[in-house]
Design goal:
about 675 residues; alpha+beta; Arc Repressor Mutant, subunit A; Beta-lactamase; six-stranded antiparallel sheet; 22 strands; about 20% strand
């Protein structure tokens, strides 16, 4: 019985094992069938793509056409020019001597300016083709020092290169030198990048390499693209430059999907709007014989339309050229060399023109070069133009009210020198104070803001809070803060940290902190529209890429960007408007002829003391005069604002009548130009 039961259990165990094995086999069979079905039906596309990626090698062209750039009236400013180009991309398993060999073959059939090669690069190539001879230029003792780590292998290599003589280099043939230069171009930069070997190749060279591509592994011909500027140098700096990715930014671009050999925007508009302007490169399949097959066409980048009016811009630059050169012929202009202009639409922040020109001396004569970037980066003390913002602090703090009078004569507070207006103006109200540019009216207002009524030689102390009241008002207009202009570079200017009472008086008349021309432009535009600060904008529209020569569908339209509202009652802003109107129209106003009265303008002049370190020893040694003007027109419905600055226009205050008028002449000519182009404004 026991034996029977034992056999029965054994039989059941075997049956269970059989069933288990059978189940596992069926499961595996079904699983395999499912995987085959999944690979061949459900996921066939993804597996085909994986197979494709493993068995085929692809490459993109180095260059693709970037988007075009137009002005506000759809006049083409920047286009692309096709250039025949020879490229090289190192293939896998290519040895150094393979590259040397192909360099000799190709250099024999194309023209190269091999004279550009450096002596170091020439010596390195010489070493490659005369390795055994050059190796003998180091001693056994020097080689032993590598083993004892007294020298590195790089040190030993540099010794060999250094000992290649000038006579040996001179013995190299023209063919050797051409091949050396070509080899250098093949290995310049990152190892497996696409390398530009030669641009602007002749049709003959292009055709030959295309037909004999199999003789030159790694080399190919294609079209590259260069920027073409249809208005020459007009506004060219601000349009920006393009080039290879800077090494310090390579990680950032690689994360964004760029190749290290890509052409990108390097400055200003090209950099700011790289996302829109970049094109899509053509894609090639590398065949087994090393030739290329086009599998995906390239695509031009999207097109930009700017707010700039290129005709206005061109004429503004010409006006600056003429006036700067004319001024440099006058006395007392030793330190003057530049002026800036910004024309803006105050209703939305659109920049219609921005130009800066700088005088340089060549062969004893002055000529001008572009310095528009200084509008963003060249701050100066601006003088009385800030008084519109200053007086608003007085109104807001109830230190003064509309129509209040002060007597304008020199003041003296304890521990400071006497401070005056440009002359004693007598009893004046707030409108007259702006029109005649009274410093004393601003001084006495600031004292009342700080809690003082002026008396001769009184003690006057203020704390940081009073400075903050004024600085916050200035900031709300765009003075001393980033304006938000759509460009990658902008300076703040100088903001003081000292809160001495005398400096407060300098502050309220524009003699303490410094501001850039674009900040002044935002200030007058904010005042012109009665208190809304808009970010200055160069971009108007983006249009989709197309192969047509015409603009395509609208992709993006730039809307005005409100940054803040000036905190002040409307009646006070209106009062400042009246004061600025009196500057230009009242018989006692000092701003006549900056803008023709027929355009019904308002504005404010500014003259300031500036200080220079002329010998760069870190010590301020020269006082100069700088001038500025800000204005808008027409008064009741402003269509334009204008800002003109001329730093360091003169250095003898008693003899600067002509040079002081440079800013006036520029403003008059530019405003006349604007209204000739926009007669219905």
């Amino acid at each position: 019985m026991v034996i029977y039961m034992s056999r029965l259990l054994t039989k059941k165990k075997v049956e269970f094992q059989f069933v288990l094995v059978a189940f596992i086999m069926v499961f595996l069979f079904v699983f395999i069938l499912y995987k085959i079905f999944s690979m061949t039906v459900l996921k066939s596309e993804s597996y085909h793509a994986l197979l494709e990626s493993l068995t085929n090698v692809y490459m993109n062209t180095t260059s693709s056409p970037r988007g075009r750039i137009y002005d506000r009236n759809y006049k083409l400013l920047v286009d692309n020019k096709a250039v025949n180009t020879i490229y090289y991309k190192r293939m896998k398993n290519t040895s150094i001597m393979d590259e040397v060999e192909v360099a000799y073959r190709l250099s024999a059939v194309i023209d190269l300016e091999y004279e550009k090669i450096s002596e170091r690069n020439l010596k390195e190539f010489y070493y490659l083709i005369h390795k055994e001879e050059v190796d003998q230029k180091v001693t056994l003792k020097e080689e032993e020092k590598v083993k004892t780590r007294e020298l590195t292998t790089d040190d030993l290599y540099n010794l060999k290169i250094a000992r290649i003589t000038e006579e040996e280099l001179n013995a190299m043939s023209q063919e050797d030198k051409k091949s050396a230069y070509l080899y250098y171009l093949m290995n310049k930069g990152y190892s497996y990048d696409n390398k530009v070997i030669k641009s602007h190749v002749s049709d003959k060279e292009y055709a030959y390499l295309a037909e004999h591509n199999d003789l030159f592994p790694g080399f190919y011909v294609d079209i590259s693209w260069e920027r073409e500027y249809l208005y020459g140098d007009v506004f060219k700096t601000m349009l920006g430059s393009v080039g290879e990715i800077p090494k310090e930014e390579k990680d950032l671009y690689l994360k964004a999907g760029y190749d290290l050999s890509d052409v990108v925007g390097l400055s200003y508009i090209e950099q700011e709007y790289e996302e829109y302007l970049k094109g899509e490169k053509a894609k090639y399949k590398i065949l087994s014989d090393g030739t290329l097959k086009l599998v995906e066409e390239g695509k031009r980048g999207n097109d930009l339309v700017l707010n700039i009016d290129i005709e206005l811009q061109k004429k503004v630059e010409e006006i600056l050229d003429e006036e700067i050169i004319k001024t440099k012929s006058q006395m007392n202009t030793k330190y003057y060399d530049k002026s800036f202009v910004v024309v803006e639409d105050p209703s939305n922040g659109e920049v219609l023109a921005m130009a800066g020109r700088k005088a340089i001396k060549e062969n004893g004569e002055y000529k001008t070069i572009d310095f528009t970037s200084g509008i963003l980066t060249n701050p100066m003390t601006v003088g009385s133009v800030v008084k519109g913002a200053s007086i608003l602090v007085g109104y807001n703090q109830k230190a003064i009210d509309i129509g209040d009078f002060f007597y304008d004569s020199c003041i003296k507070v304890k521990a400071t020198t006497q401070k005056c207006s440009w002359k004693n103006l007598g009893r004046i109200n707030d409108i007259e104070a702006l029109a005649m540019s009274s410093n004393v009216y601003q001084f006495k207002t600031a004292m009342k803001v700080a809690g003082y009524n002026y008396s001769y030689n009184m003690a006057f102390q203020v704390d940081q809070s009073v400075f903050d009241l004024y600085r916050n008002m200035y900031h709300s207009f765009g003075l001393g803060v980033k304006t938000g202009i759509d460009l990658p570079l902008e300076s703040l200017g100088y903001s003081g940290l000292d809160n001495q009472s005398g400096l407060l008086l300098d502050f309220v008349m524009g003699q303490y902190e410094t501001y850039t021309p674009i900040q002044l432009s935002q200030y007058i535009s904010t005042l012109a529209n009665k208190g809304t600060r808009y970010a200055p904008r160069l971009l108007k529209e983006v249009h989709k890429s197309t192969n047509s020569s015409q603009l395509s569908d609208l992709l993006y339209k730039s809307e005005k960007e409100e940054l803040n509202q000036v905190s002040s009652e409307e009646k006070y802003i209106n009062r400042v408007h009246e004061g600025f109107y009196a500057v230009m129209h009242a018989s006692y106003g000092i701003g006549h002829d900056y803008i023709d009265e027929k355009y019904d303008p308002a504005g404010k002049t500014g003259t300031s003391q500036s200080f220079l370190d002329t010998n760069l020893d870190g010590i301020i040694d020269t006082e100069t005069i700088s001038t500025a003007f800000i204005g808008f027109a027409p008064f009741d419905d402003p269509k334009m604002t204008i800002t003109v600055t001329s730093p360091d226009i003169s250095y003898e205050k008693s003899r600067y009548a002509y040079t002081a008028n440079t800013t006036k002449r520029i403003s008059k000519k530019v405003s006349d130009l604007y209204f000739s182009l926009y007669p219905n404004s």
